[in-house]
Amino acid sequence: MGLSFSSFHVCYFLSRKKIQKAKSDQLKSFLACLFKNIFIDVNLSDLINSLNHHNPNNMKQIFFLFFLIAFNFSAFSQETKPAIATIEFLSDELSRIIKKDAKVETVAEGFQFTEGPLWVEKEKMLLFSDVPANTIYKWTEAKGKEVYLKPSGYTGAEPSLCKEPGSNGLTLDKNGNLVLCQHGNRQMARMDALLDKPEAKFITLADKYNGKRFSSPNDAVYNSAGELFFTDPPYGLQTQDDSDAKKEISFNGVYKVKTNGEVILQVDSITRPNGIALTPDEKKLIVACSDGAHPNWYIFDISGDSLTNGKIFYSAAEEAKTMKGGPDGFKIDKNGNVFATGPGGVYIFSKEGKKLGHIKLDDATSNIALSPDEKTIYITNDMYVLRLKMRE
Questions:
Q1: What's the chain's average pLDDT?
Q2: pTM over 0.85, yes/no
Q3: Which domains are assigned to the chain?
Q4: What CA–CA distance (Å, rounded) separates 24 from 372?
């Protein structure tokens, strides 16, 4: 909506009798904004007439309704609150990345399942997907959460039968355009609109390999040459597994889209490829596997259009026995440190794969966004979005 009303605004509006002086169309617009934000279905014409004529039969109910509005908008203020989290320091190296007294806070909540956080510095906003809701939200310090784009991942005429039809991973191309992993549309796509004027119009970047449709692109990263790497597990299909009748490719692949649009298979041996990122020198690619039987992060050397020397970067097999979630989205900072969502929260690895620490969270975490100065991380955490200001 882009509108923010506090309890003070509502009470002042009433006490000064602005309603009586307002033009009917202006008042109707004001009230429509209020009731839309708190999801109340109200006959606005009847309400305006009652207010203007002091109908004694309705005034008590009306003032009670405005009390509810005031209460709701007070409750939906943009204050953050502490999240239930602990930071486990396993190495002194982590103290140079995260200060000892840093606290995880909840900045937004009330979603179905959040994914794909992306900080957009130009707009000072965090974008993230609510995958089951087929919606991208934005969060700003000033206004909190707002719907940014809907639909985000499925634009078909018929209702989707899939549990997770929306967008998943989000990134920007070298021109600053929003690029989306679209589950429902089964493609990598670019939003055909400006970032500050989003529209559900999309240009296909890749939707097939050897003539067969992708299952549901999940996460993506660009290299400096403008080539796009992405993962394609089956989570956006109706059954969310390899048995789905609409799955066209027998394996779950990692792909690269060259600048000329050519799609090249990179890896077909990871059972559930998920999060993906390049090391700062772009010589290596790390891929998360969210298969509960193989909860690992794999690292590969990049050799032209191929990946070689694949090996386990870190295995969370032990943690996965007792903690919720699996290896999922992650980001790598300029020093090569890896901030990875996995069983029981967020893992911080050195560039060599040493576990430096663990941000422990009860609910499943799915992805990470780094601020431009790399001092803050945003975490998509089931129905929540969290922030950790790591250091000053």
A1: 87
A2: no
A3: 7-75 (no CATH), 81-389 (2.120.10.30)
A4: 47
